[in-house]
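Structure (tokenized):
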């Protein structure tokens, strides 16, 4: 490949090492020329040229007359440029539907699917616990693993390793131990996971040893292996090795896919090798492969530093054609790239093109241009642009902040203060970031009193200081060796409801190190530990190093002891990040959130939701919200969050924005709903942040808040964290309510993350406190106990329920139903026969379950006899009985009987439920009658019964099994339109189905939908 040969020649030829790798324009900070005279001549000529061009641009910007240009490409006047890329073909535009439209490009490749026939999660959890709790001196991790007597299958090993990303040394020990087990050999999936762990730990020696181990054991690499290796070397900035791996991949017969190209190009951009990145990009385009917007922006920024203006323009053109970015946004990205790279001439040329094309030059473009001029130290020119903005009534605080930053970058504090005074005179309030930046420079210049006066002015003007501003003042006091006052200012953060960040602590610690205040440093580190702020190893390292240099050796042991204590502080966050994604549908949430408020105007809610979903550009959305006439109240915010739950990213941004408005304050209910929205999108980092923010703002944290978090953790299988959260709630002094117990017990009973021992303990605690569980909770609990075969505890539960006033017949009916569901019909009938209470009532409650159990066993006549006997005592069959009969008849292929049963239901005015409709849809699909299945599906909607998650999920499975995956894809889209989030299994089922049917283009669109949904639901990245 051309790019690789160019790189190799650079390595081999020593005469080339002194040459410039990338040629920048004369106005870039990195530009060089052969002689100083030539440099001066070029700069003078360019300066004259740019001055002329700038004058022309200022005239254009200040004029209302424009020349129309109908061209649709982002082209600037070029002088002999031949670097433009070929335009994209239609195939490229079609292939953009691959699952690389956002930054899940790497993750979507090579996913290893675990069989769903057997849930290995409990085994994985137990093995992981042994590995990660390797703190027993007497018994080694290996001995504990031996005692488990598990059969270590590759899929289990791989899942265990995925939970050990942050403990690579333990992962390697487990990897090496299991390798020696008789009959076990690592698969390529296991090796790939281990390579990812080594890469994450930046342990390149381990990476190379693992590759050698693969070769020794004749384990062939797959495309994911090569992609991981390229990524590892790219992140480590080992570009040479990355290129060699890329070439080896080709030689091994693997054609690079989009993920491999994406990783390679991003690595080259990070290393500043835009020339090589463009070579790879050209190759991708020729093959009809593309990638996501973020990578395009990286490539644009990198190539903008070169002299190949035509290449930069072509990339911007491709962003419009391929990524479906608006021309307005693409111009913005291009302008920003030129300005960041110091290409002022090209930026001004682009402004001229924008005006000729009648593109609206809004504040966004002005801001980028002003920032670019300030970076290039052209402050006078930047001021002219600001004047034009004022004439257009586009004066903006962002622009003023940029100007002040520009002056401070030149160390011209007096000019910055003059500009600040001009802002004051215009009756605008400067931003807190502007005040902070000036204060930092004043403290740096030993103008301590001026800095303090500025801070006082900011507070007096009603501008709330943030953690950065307060930290700047702390640093100022420490610079004056006034430690006690610094501590007072730092402590004021908590009083203001601001949580000090890691950066704040870091600056505080560094300033204390400068003045050798080691007792204060120890106090600060202890406070970080108590506040659950992760203290990174590098922070401990430079604190210890500083102590060794300045004679604080006696304190070092205390620091090292604290370091040991902090090692497991981030365990909660790691488990949230590393636990395998839950592959089951989302369940109905049990929380005590209030119902929709009747006091809220539904039209206002719809208006806000429309604004939030109208654009992906948050700045535009924010502008629309600002001009909205809707009055924002906590009740309105709750309803917006409730209605836009599936659009977590947008509604949580709205929640943050509205919380900063003057005169508005979030209620506890609003925070509860925001926490629920974040949890529903599995954005646990954001969920916790909202919880901490809620406490800082002084909102009442009730049991409902904790119950929501418990449910969100538990529903994704993170039951250990749910249990810890429950205990954390009790540690705060809050006593659990029945709803809190219900949330925890419900998630502990589910198959994913099931913990029977903890379930029993929690249920007994609930009963001991005198709380009476509702029928739904008893169903979950007894169902769980019966599924694991713990009938002894189930009977103990029945006795306990009777003592606290729970209806005995209802309790026994739930128990009998649970036995029937798991096929233990004989035990169920025995319990029914031995019941000593009111038998007729129990018969009425259980006969539907008995019928269901008989039909499961194939005993149709027995089931019909049971139905007839109940009719004789005046009890008609319910919808549950009819549904069971329909399922049985479909199973036996007796379609006439199905139709007859449906007619009986209609005659007896027995309305079918969503379960009945779902059974009929699956039944018709099982006998090859897809058209009738679709008719039932449409009928249920027409009659007012909305399909739920299970209906969609089962219909999708049936369609894919029948070779009609394209229709299943349509159902995925319908789910999203109705606000129902498809699960990972849904996406995977349709993806595999389409691939089996040879519809690869549509399969790529499935990945794109999945990636878009993830981005739509999460704020954290």
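Design, position by position:
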């Amino acid at each position: 490949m051309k790019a690789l040969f160019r790189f190799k020649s650079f390595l081999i030829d020593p005469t080339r090492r002194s040459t410039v790798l990338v040629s920048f324009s004369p106005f870039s900070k990195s530009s060089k020329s052969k002689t100083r005279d030539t440099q001066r001549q070029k700069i003078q000529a360019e300066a004259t040229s740019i001055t002329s061009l700038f004058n022309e641009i200022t005239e254009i910007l200040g004029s209302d007359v424009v020349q129309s240009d109908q061209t649709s490409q982002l082209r600037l006047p070029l002088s002999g440029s031949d670097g433009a890329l070929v335009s994209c073909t239609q195939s490229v535009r079609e292939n953009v539907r691959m699952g690389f439209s956002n930054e899940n490009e790497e993750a979507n490749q090579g996913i290893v699917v675990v069989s769903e026939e057997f849930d290995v999660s409990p085994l994985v959890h137990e093995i992981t616990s042994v590995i990660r709790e390797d703190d027993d001196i007497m018994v080694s991790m290996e001995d504990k693993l031996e005692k488990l007597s598990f059969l270590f299958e590759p899929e289990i090993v791989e899942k265990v390793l995925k939970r050990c990303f942050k403990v690579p040394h333990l992962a390697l020990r487990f990897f090496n131990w299991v390798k020696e087990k008789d009959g076990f050999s690592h698969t390529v999936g296991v090796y790939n996971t281990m390579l990812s762990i080594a890469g994450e730990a930046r342990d390149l020696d381990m990476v190379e040893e693992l590759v050698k181990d693969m070769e020794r054991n004749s384990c062939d690499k797959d495309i994911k292996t090569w992609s991981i290796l390229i990524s590892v070397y790219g992140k480590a900035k080992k570009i040479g090795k990355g290129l060699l791996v890329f070439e080896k991949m080709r030689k091994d017969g693997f054609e690079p896919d989009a993920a491999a190209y994406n990783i390679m190009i991003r690595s080259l951009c990070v290393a500043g090798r835009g020339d090589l990145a463009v070579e790879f990009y050209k190759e991708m385009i020729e093959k009809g492969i593309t990638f996501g917007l973020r990578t395009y922006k990286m490539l644009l920024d990198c190539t903008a530093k070169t002299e190949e203006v035509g290449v930069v323009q072509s990339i911007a053109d491709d962003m419009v054609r391929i990524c479906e970015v608006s021309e307005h946004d693409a111009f913005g990205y291009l302008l920003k790239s030129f300005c960041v790279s110091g290409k002022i001439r090209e930026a001004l040329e682009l402004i001229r093109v924008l005006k000729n094309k009648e593109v609206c030059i809004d504040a966004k473009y002005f801001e980028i241009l002003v920032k670019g001029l300030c970076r290039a130290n052209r402050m006078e020119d930047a001021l002219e642009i600001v004047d034009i903005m004022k004439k257009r009534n586009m004066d903006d605080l962002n622009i003023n902040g940029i100007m002040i930053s520009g002056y401070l970058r030149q160390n011209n504090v007096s000019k910055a203060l003059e500009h600040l005074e001009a802002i004051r005179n215009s009756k605008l309030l400067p931003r807190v970031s502007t005040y902070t930046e000036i204060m930092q420079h004043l403290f740096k210049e030993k103008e301590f009193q001026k800095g303090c006066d500025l801070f006082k002015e900011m507070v007096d003007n009603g501008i709330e200081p943030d953690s950065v501003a307060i930290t700047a003042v702390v640093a100022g006091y420490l610079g004056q060796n006034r430690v006690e006052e610094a501590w007072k200012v730092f402590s004021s953060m908590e009083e203001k409801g601001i949580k000090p960040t890691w950066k704040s602590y870091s600056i505080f610690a560094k300033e204390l190190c400068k003045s050798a205040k080691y007792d204060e440093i120890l106090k600060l580190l202890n406070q970080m530990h108590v506040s659950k702020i992760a203290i990174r190893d590098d922070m401990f390292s430079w604190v210890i190093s500083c102590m060794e240099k300045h004679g604080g050796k006696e304190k070092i042991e205390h620091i090292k002891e604290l370091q040991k204590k902090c090692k497991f502080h981030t365990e909660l966050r790691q488990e949230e990040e590393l636990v395998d994604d839950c592959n089951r549908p989302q369940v109905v949430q049990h929380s005590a959130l209030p119902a929709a408020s009747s006091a809220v105007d539904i039209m206002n809610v719809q208006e806000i939701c429309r604004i939030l979903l109208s654009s992906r550009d948050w700045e535009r959305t924010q502008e629309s919200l600002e001009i909205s006439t809707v009055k924002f109240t906590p009740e309105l915010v709750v309803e917006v969050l409730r209605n836009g739950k599936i659009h977590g990213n947008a509604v949580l941004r709205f929640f943050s924005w509205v919380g900063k408005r003057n005169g508005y304050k979030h209620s506890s209910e609003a925070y509860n709903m925001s926490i629920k929205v974040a949890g529903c999108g599995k954005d646990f980092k954001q969920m916790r942040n909202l919880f901490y923010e809620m406490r800082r703002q002084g909102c009442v944290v009730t049991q409902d808040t904790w119950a929501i978090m418990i449910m969100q953790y538990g529903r994704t299988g993170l039951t250990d964290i749910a249990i810890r959260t429950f205990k954390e709630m009790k540690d705060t002094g809050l006593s659990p309510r029945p709803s809190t117990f219900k949330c925890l017990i419900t998630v502990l009973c589910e198959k994913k993350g099931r913990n029977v021992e903890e379930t029993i303990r929690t249920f007994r605690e609930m009963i001991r406190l005198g709380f009476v569980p509702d029928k739904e909770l008893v169903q979950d609990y007894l169902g769980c106990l019966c599924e694991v075969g713990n009938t002894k505890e189930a009977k103990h539960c029945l006795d306990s329920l009777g003592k606290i006033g729970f209806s005995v017949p209802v309790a026994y009916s739930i128990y009998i139903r649970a036995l029937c569901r798991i096929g233990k019909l004989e035990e169920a009938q025995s319990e029914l026969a031995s019941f000593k209470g009111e038998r007729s009532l129990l018969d009425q409650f259980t006969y539907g379950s008995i019928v269901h159990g008989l039909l499961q066993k194939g005993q149709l006549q027995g089931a019909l006899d049971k139905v007839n006997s109940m009719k004789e005592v005046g009890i008609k069959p319910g919808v549950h009985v009819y549904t069971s009969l329909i399922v049985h008849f479909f199973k036996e292929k007796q379609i006439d009987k199905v139709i007859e049963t449906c007619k009986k239901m209609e005659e007896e005015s027995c309305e079918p439920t969503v379960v009945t409709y779902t059974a009929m849809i699956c039944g018709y699909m099982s006998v090859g009658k897809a058209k009738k299945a679709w008719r039932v599906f449409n009928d249920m909607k027409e009659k007012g019964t909305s399909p739920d998650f299970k209906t969609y999920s089962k219909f999708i499975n049936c369609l894919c099994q029948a070779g009609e995956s394209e229709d299943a894809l349509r159902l995925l889209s319908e789910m999203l339109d109705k606000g129902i989030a498809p699960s990972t299994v849904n996406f995977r089922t349709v993806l595999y189905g389409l691939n089996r049917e040879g519809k690869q283009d549509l399969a790529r669109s499935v990945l794109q939908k999945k990636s878009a949904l993830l981005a739509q639901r999460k704020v954290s990245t």
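Reviewer-requested clarification: Residues 1-36, 64-72, 77-118, 568-598 have pLDDT under 50 and may be disordered. Residues 36-61 form the longest helix (26 residues).
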